[in-house]
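User: Good morning. I'm curious how zinc ion would be positioned relative to this chain. Could you predict the structure with it bound?
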Amino acid sequence: MNSDLQENTHKRLNILTGEWVLVSPHRAKRPWQGQNEDTSTEKRPSYDEHCYLCAGNKRINGAVNPNYQDTFVFDNDFGALQKDSNEFSYKNGLLQSESEKGICKVICFSPDHSKSLAELAVDDIKKVVAVWKEEFVSLRANPAINYVQIFENKGAVMGCSNPHPHGQIWSQSTLPNEVEKKDKQQLKYFKEHKKSLLADYVAQELEQKERIIFENELFVVLVPFWAVWPFEAMILPKKAMKDISSLTELESYCFADAIAVLTKAYDALFDCSFPYSSGIHQAPTNNNNNQHWHWHMSFYPPLLRSATIKKFMVGYEMFGMPQRDITAESAANLLRKNSRP
Ligand SMILES: [Zn+2]
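Assistant: Good morning! Here's the predicted structure, ligand included:
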């Protein structure tokens, strides 16, 4: 392991976005005087009559959820994007705006109100993967949809308003900022090298073995070299695939297995239901060839050193660039120790 990277302040390049993160390993040793909140260890019931996601309950718009057994998908009653909003373009001097259309969906991962992905069996997570794939394929067929963002906000600290295990899909007519950056970087590499940027990256990580948390036959779970969040992680298929539409049964199982291992390691790390935002970045559905894309799932957890001590993106990070203390290698080591043998 390179000792400069473990001892001296440096910046690391995110090859997917072209942006840098500042790493200050010496600060990981300083005493902490920040906040320490009480964690709620209250056990939730399997069914909550006031939850709008539980089976059989009524939602605010009056619709009643079916008595679903595994997963359940519905159009978000209060979606940020709407399929039938007015189409317009506005330009006035330096002020510019474009209308944006889209479809927002909610996916319940399980009828059990009390469980998170970390507590579901791999076969049950595989059912969630199957729904992601199905929804992606159906949204892709819509000519008005050019990008599909699958994500989950977990935990009150991430602004999640309902503890029932669920995720969302926002799909829209143009590419969001983060996707556009990754599209450009991957295309540039593919043009120069005639192969996938992330396939080459995974091969290098598997050789170095310094940031790998877990691997199975087809997937790798690692802390990316350029991670911003203290325990940020990424799940990648070893083989380049542009999106999740072609996932086989075995690939879906191995992906579900990787999610299970990572979310369990997170919960074990600080002995709490670990909050995070996770999302799948994949090729746009804009009918371009997009062979430069290699889909992946990223986890951005806000916790820093305990169940209650969070990292804040403030000050220098708002005005300069993201900064972290603990190195990606140390974080991977801690997560590896907390994952199953
Ligand atoms: Zn519920």
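The two ends are 23 Å apart (CA to CA). The chain is about 25% helix and 20% strand.
Let me know if you'd like a different ligand tried.
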